[in-house]
Amino acid sequence: DYQDAALLNILWFLLGRPSDTMCLVKNQVAVYPGGCLFITFKRMKSASYQGASIFHDPNDFSSCPIHALALATIMQLTPSEFLMDQLPRDTQELLPTEIGETPLRELLDVRTRSPATSNSESPTPKGPAKKATVPGIHAYVNRVLQKWSGVCQTEGTNLTPGLSSHSFRRGAAQNANSDSKISTPWILDHGGWSMSAVSKAFNYIVGTTQEDQTVGKSLAGWDLKASPPLPTLDDFDPLVLHRIRLLQDRLFSAAKGFTERLSLRDDVVDVLTATAILHYPDMLRLRPESLYIKRVQEALRQVQATEAEITAWS
């Protein structure tokens, strides 16, 4: 459930690219100047490299992507190269299509069709079909949304009705586009829509991390002129920091101390640790009986720390 929560959260910041979430690996997450985590990944369908700026949410810990990644990593009990190792990763045939004369709206919408629909409408392939790791990720996201829609209704929590995997793309893109200070090409580039004519038109005016960070700030709820800070462990004195490091080793046991392929960078782990500590009291108030709270409490016992200490650290 924590990995699925991170999946839904990250989809907003990736402008709804479910297939690309399967390409998010631990050793491609970095702390960037400007107060963000920057995730680099190889796009599933185009094999081009893409990046996304992820900021700490200043308003709501439950919608913060960095907090969601921290929880998902803490609850990941076995080493994995993937940030979200719960996703299905089968293979299926992708048929080449002619996109030179295809309208942009159709190019964007075709990506959300089911494999069966896409195959039935595809032209006869001119060459061998290409293999790609594109499982039923859209169906997976839709199942998660349907599952939690029922739970939210039962608990009286407001949730937009009719959400699907496609909602993240349109919703996030429209949210970013509502700010007049954000250029449309920046949104296209952040969304990875560098296809054919779009790529030719905008290839030379987009692609810098500064532009991507501008879009990322908007999606996270920051003013575009703000300088968002990342949660940090830098302000702790050496004695307290040593105790935090002991707790960190327990909580992130599946994400550090392994080969580079299986590990997050040390500065990234520090950001996730600081974020988890910062919002621990919030999570405790939200659901004190949750598996996450039990895991943190067990780790505290193992390092002989107390809840009073972690509350003070927060």
TrEMBL record:
- Any one GO biological process: DNA recombination
Q: What segments bear the compositional bias annotation Polar residues? A: 114-123
Alphabetical list of InterPro entries matching this protein: Integrase-like_cat_sf
List, in alphabetical order, the Gene Ontology terms for molecular function in this entry: DNA binding
* Parts forming coiled coils: none
The segments labelled Disordered in the record are 106-133
Protein name per the record: Uncharacterized protein
